[in-house]
Amino acid sequence: MPLIPEEPQIHEKAQGPRATPASGRTAPTPRPVPGPRPAAPPRPGRPGPVRPAPPAQRASRDTAAATPGPSGPAAPAATSAAPQIQLIPATPDGALDAAEEAVDLLLDSGRTPGDVLVITTGEAHPWAAHELSFGDAAYWAQHDAGDDVFYADAAGADRAASRAVVVVALNGGPEDAAVTALTVAHSRAGALLIVCGDPQRINSVLGAGV
Questions:
Q1: C-alpha pair distances (Å), 63 with each of 66, 84, 108, 112, 148
Q2: What CA–CA distance (Å, rounded) separates 24 from 175?
Q3: Per-residue pLDDT tens for 129-152?
């Protein structure tokens, strides 16, 4: 009796992983300037399902090349208009997480990673701490490449070049660190300044002539 060939089975192709939606936050949502929407790879230093040993920087998938910044102190943004200021209420313990979420929203809405500078006033961002372990020159060389989000502390932020968006995380530190961070951030932000921290403290510094 002839054998009847079995019909080929069609297996449904497994779908790829879905992006995990950002956790809800009641803080005001930053309003970045729209632009081409790049893919958003994992954040540098941000824990994921499988975290590599060193914190990996985000590689931009946008085809537009970013202009490298200078290695020395940079001049304030060459623009006559002051940046828009967005305040996100947060405690010192939650300021860095709030800043991370703000960066995610910026990238999701079209900003390229090289548009963003993040300044901390207390503990350094994990990515910055890791990269500084390889030396100051290597750390700032990545800043000069200008193709990714760059993280700096208040003490070293004056070396950073101007970027379209600057995010400040008031995550602790002395009062003068907050003043320095906000002063530098205001001078480096070309379009948008986002500050995550105690609104009363932020307004007292910004209202003092920043």
A1: 9, 27, 16, 10, 13
A2: 30
A3: 999 999 999 999 999 999 999 999
Residues 6+ apart with CB under 8 A from 181: 119, 120, 121, 154, 157, 168, 170
> Can you give the pTM of this predicted structure?
0.63
Mean pLDDT check: name the lowest of 19-23, 61-65, 120-124, 179-183. 61-65
Distance CA 29, CA 123 (A): 24
d(CA 150, CA 143): 6
Q: Which residues have CB under 8 Å from 65's CB, separation 6+?
A: 147
Tell me phi and psi for residue 176, to 5 degrees.
Answer: -65, -25
SS3 (DSSP) at 129 = helix
Q: What is the three-class DSSP state of 185?
A: helix
> Is residue 105 a contact partner of residue 167, using CB atoms and an 8 Å limit?
no
Task: Identify which of 165, 158, 131, 172 has the alpha carbon closest to the alpha carbon of residue 44.
Answer: 131
- Tokens in use for 144? 């000069």
> Concatenated DSSP letters for 89-114?
E--TTTHHHHHHHHHHHHHHTT--GG
